[in-house]
Every structure is written in structure tokens, then in C-alpha cells.
Design goal:
Elements: E1 2-5, E2 8-10, E3 15-17, E4 19-22, E5 28-32, E6 42-45, E7 50-53, E8 55-60, E9 65-66, E10 69-70, H1 75-84, E11 87-94, H2 102-112, E12 119-125, H3 131-142, E13 148-152, H4 163-176, E14 179-183, H5 187-199, H6 214-230, E15 235-237, H7 243-254, E16 259-263, H8 265-269, H9 280-284, H10 296-307, E17 312-313, H11 322-325, H12 345-355, H13 361-375, E18 393-403, E19 422-432, E20 435-439, E21 442-443
Parallel strand pairs: 1-6, 2-7, 8-11, 11-12, 12-13, 13-14, 14-15, 15-16, 16-17
Antiparallel strand pairs: 1-4, 2-3, 4-5, 7-18, 9-10, 18-19, 19-20, 20-21
Helix pairs in contact: 3-4, 6-7, 7-10
The protein binds N-(aminocarbonyl)-beta-alanine and zinc ion (3 copies).
């Protein structure tokens, strides 16, 4: 047992001075002022600290095979890094190989993820359509504990689907009470622009953002929303990076459509100038999709989070080391797309969101944990501090400062986007399943300790 004494509990609703007792089954047993310490119980002094629900990152790609290589963080190293940053659960993506049955792909991912240090779940990507996919979606929901499916409108000739497949999948997800998620970029337009740029000799990473301008995301977001509206299917748009997509989501929500939007901290903090360098590697390390945008888009993303039109934050943690990025020397379309960030997410959002005065601490909890738990139907087990909830907590020092350095991070990749950035707000301790797994600089992540979190379909009790 663990008794967290003297801290301030911050939930998405309120902040209260209160103790938290965590039981030996990994759950919260009691909360209240001045709780007694049962015999044999370890006491953790939380004075001066905020006690918040552990972060949930609903968008990671651990050891994902992608663009001819495999993301370098595996489920152990990636989730361990998450714990060091205050994130206690992830939802990763099952990506079927070409033509692979979805259920089989999910089984493969279950094996890979057995080494996770934190709890985890999966979205399953629908990358093709046939009767087997229809059947497997049902098996995944009923037997697999999956309640969300992923759709890529980009990555032509790889993961991209057309509108017909998207509609079939949305209809099926609707029958099953599952949530559709989407990467909204027009893959045909990207492919067209990539070919045009390459033909004119533009082969470097600075061409990457020019091959995926804001209209490409705006069009896809609007189309995805229009398709979802045909049957009023709920839709979650991942990594929203533009004003166009944000406005499309807000307009749809005003019409009563159930559309949700996710933001990545890197899009809030960095802009297109990251590609404005003669240092090829530095530029390539920022190659992700959607790319970094002109600064003007950031105001819309912050506005979306502040107003609640955009509900969640994630990292899209997808790590590629130098040698992997080098695959795209001479052809930017071959640079593996993806950047790290799971360990840095909470601090970046506290510093740029709360310290800057944009977000309240309660809103911070909402966008890093609670809203995600609600949208993906794992609330109140996750994202909540209440008796019976999982004892997944972060003890947050709101005034401590640290300067980010890749040497001090725990992910398995050779850079961080945030190198040298000084941030206020630090995960002092992280508790997962009632165990102190990050203790003021000491990481005690245990391989295989993480559990698969089954997620029930919506509308079913
Ligand atoms: O560049 C990215 N985002 N890589 C990971 C795959 C995806 O699109 O989410
Ligand atoms: Zn059917
Ligand atoms: Zn994506
Ligand atoms: Zn992604």
C-alpha cells in the first residue's frame, strides 16, 4: 500500500488538498484529508506537489514497421520513457501488413506489447476492405477489447484508403459501437506534389512541408467529417495541425456532430522554420506528417484546446534514429516520417499551456488524461482520481524547472525535438498500479508489468 500525503489533487473538475491511499491491487482505495496510514503502508510526501491522473497518450507507434524500417522505441523503452514523463497509459496502433487479416495483426501486436512497462491498448488500422475485415472488426470489438479503428487518408500506395473503404468501415464501426479515428491528409494531393517537387530537383527535407500544405489537411478533414455525417458516425481526427482542420471540427461540433480533435505538443511549439536550415539531419529529424506549419496555425490549435473544440493531446511518438532518417538522403519522400516526444509531452504542455496562462491546471488534466479516457471509454478506470480507479498518478512539481537534454531521456532514439529547452513543470514521481515507478530521477520501469486495457464498445453497459 502507498499513502500519498499532503498533496493537492487536481482532476479535470477541481483542485483539493487531500491524501490518496493506493491499495495492493493497483487501485485507489480512499481519498480524503489526513487519511490514517494502515500498518505496513509506505508514505509518500507530496507536500508542494500536485497529484494528477497519470497521462494517457492515445497516439504512439512503438516498434512500428513503416517506410521500410521499424520505429526504434519498442514497447518497453517507449512506455518506460512515458513513465519517466508522467504518462502511465498509451494507446498504440495495430497496422496490418498488406492484406493481413486485422485480427491476426492485432494478435501480433499483443505479443510485441507484452514487454510494456505501462498499461496499453490498441486502435486497429483498417487498410483494405473485404468480408474478412467486416468479420474481424466484430471479433476485435467483442473478443479483443478494441473500440477504435484507424483510417489513413494519406500514405498513398501504402496505408491509404479511399472514401469507399472509409465509408464501409464507418458503417461497420457504427454497428459495433466503435469509434473511427483518422489521419486527415489528402494522399493523392501529397503524392502529386511530391512528384512535382522531385521532378524540379527539390529532393531535400525542406520540400516535405511543401508537399503537404495546410489545404491538404483541411480538405481531408472536411471530407472525413462530411463522410462521418452521412450516418452521424462519431469521428476522432488525430494530429490536427492546421487552422482549417480546427475550424472544420468546431463548425461540425456546432452542428451537433460528434467530432473530436487531437493536438500534438510539437505542433503547438515549433513552426515551419525547423526546416529552414542547411543541416540536413536536423531538418530530416523534423520530418513527420502533418509537417510543422506556419506559426499562424498555432493560435487556432491553442484556441481549440482552450475552448474545448479540440479535446486531447498525444505525441504520435514514432522514433527513427539517424541511420534510419538517412534512408531519405537524396529523396525526401523516403525519410521515415515520425518524431519522438512521449517523455516530454506533459512538461511541454505544462510550460507552454499552464505557465503561459492559457490553460488552468484542471484543463491540463483534461487534455492530457481525462478527456482521452472518456473519448476512448476507459473512464473512470483511467483519467480519474476516485476510489476504485487505477492508481496511476503523477506527482507533479508545478514550479520545478529542467532543461531538456537527450542524454537524460529514456527513449531509444538519438535526439529530442526539445534539446536545450528549459521547461517549468516536472513529473517528480510517477505511480503505476500503486507502484512508484519514477522516483525523482530514478526509473524503476519493469518489463512486462504493463497490462492490456480492454476497452468496451460505446453504448453498451
Ligand atoms: O509522421 C508521422 N506522423 N508518423 C507516424 C505515422 C502517422 O502518420 O501517424
Ligand atoms: Zn454488418
Ligand atoms: Zn498520422
Ligand atoms: Zn501516428
Amino acid at each position: 500500500m502507498l499513502l500519498i500525503k499532503g498533496g493537492t489533487i487536481v482532476t479535470a473538475e477541481r483542485s483539493t488538498r487531500s491524501d490518496v491511499l493506493c491499495d495492493d491491487e493497483g487501485r485507489i482505495a480512499a481519498i480524503g484529508p489526513d487519511l490514517d496510514c494502515p500498518t505496513g503502508c509506505e508514505i509518500v510526501d507530496a507536500s508542494g506537489l500536485l497529484v494528477m491522473p497519470g497521462g494517457i497518450d492515445p497516439h504512439t507507434h512503438m516498434e512500428m514497421p513503416f517506410m521500410g524500417t521499424t520505429a526504434s522505441d519498442d514497447f518497453f523503452t517507449g512506455t518506460a520513457a512515458g513513465l519517466a514523463g508522467g504518462t502511465t497509459s498509451i494507446i498504440d496502433f495495430v497496422i496490418p501488413a498488406e492484406g493481413q487479416p486485422l485480427f491476426e495483426a492485432w494478435q501480433d501486436w499483443c505479443v510485441k506489447a507484452e514487454k510494456s512497462a505501462s498499461d496499453y491498448g490498441f486502435h486497429v488500422a483498417v487498410t483494405h476492405w473485404n468480408d474478412r475485415v467486416h468479420t474481424d472488426m466484430g471479433r476485435l470489438v467483442h473478443e479483443g477489447g478494441v473500440n477504435s479503428f484507424k483510417h489513413f487518408m494519406a500514405y498513398k500506395n501504402a496505408l491509404m484508403i479511399d472514401d469507399a473503404i472509409f465509408l464501409h468501415s464507418m458503417q461497420r464501426a457504427g454497428e459495433l459501437g466503435a469509434l473511427c479515428t483518422v489521419h486527415a491528409e489528402n494522399g493523392d494531393a501529397v503524392s502529386f506534389l511530391q512528384a512535382e517537387l522531385l521532378a524540379s530537383g527539390e529532393t531535400g527535407p525542406e520540400a516535405h512541408p511543401r508537399s503537404r500544405p495546410a489545404q491538404v489537411e483541411g480538405e481531408a478533414a472536411q471530407r472525413a467529417i462530411a463522410l462521418a455525417s452521412l450516418h452521424d458516425t462519431p469521428l476522432y481526427i488525430v494530429h490536427v495541425s492546421t487552422r482549417e482542420a480546427t475550424e472544420a471540427i468546431a463548425a461540425a461540433r456546432l452542428k451537433g456532430l460528434k467530432i473530436y480533435g487531437e493536438v500534438l505538443p510539437q505542433h503547438l511549439v515549433f513552426d515551419e522554420r525547423v526546416y529552414d536550415t542547411t543541416d540536413w539531419l536536423s531538418s530530416a529529424r523534423h520530418v513527420m506528417s502533418p509537417p510543422f506549419r506556419p506559426k499562424s496555425h498555432q493560435q487556432a490549435l491553442w484556441g481549440g484546446l482552450v475552448s474545448g473544440q479540440l479535446q486531447t493531446t498525444a505525441t504520435d511518438h514514432c522514433c527513427f534514429c539517424r541511420t534510419q532518417k538517412e534512408r531519405g538522403r537524396g529523396d525526401f519522400t523516403k525519410i521515415p516520417n515520425g518524431v519522438p516526444g512521449i517523455e516530454e509531452r506533459m512538461s511541454v504542455l505544462w510550460h507552454h499551456g499552464v505557465v503561459s496562462g492559457r490553460l488552468s491546471p484542471e484543463q491540463f488534466v483534461a487534455i492530457t488524461s481525462t478527456n482521452t479516457a472518456r473519448i476512448f471509454n476507459i473512464y473512470p478506470r483511467k483519467g480519474c482520481i476516485a476510489p476504485g480507479a487505477d492508481a496511476d498518478l503523477v506527482l507533479w512539481d508545478p514550479t520545478a524547472t529542467r532543461t531538456i537534454s537527450n542524454k537524460a531521456l529514456h527513449h531509444n532514439v538519438d535526439y529530442t525535438l526539445y534539446e536545450g529547452m528549459t521547461l517549468t513543470g516536472v513529473a517528480k514521481r510517477t505511480i503505476s498500479q500503486s507502484l512508484m515507478v519514477w522516483d525523482d530521477g530514478t526509473l524503476r520501469a519493469e518489463r512486462g508489468k504493463g497490462r492490456y486495457v480492454r476497452r468496451a464498445p460505446f453504448g453498451r453497459i
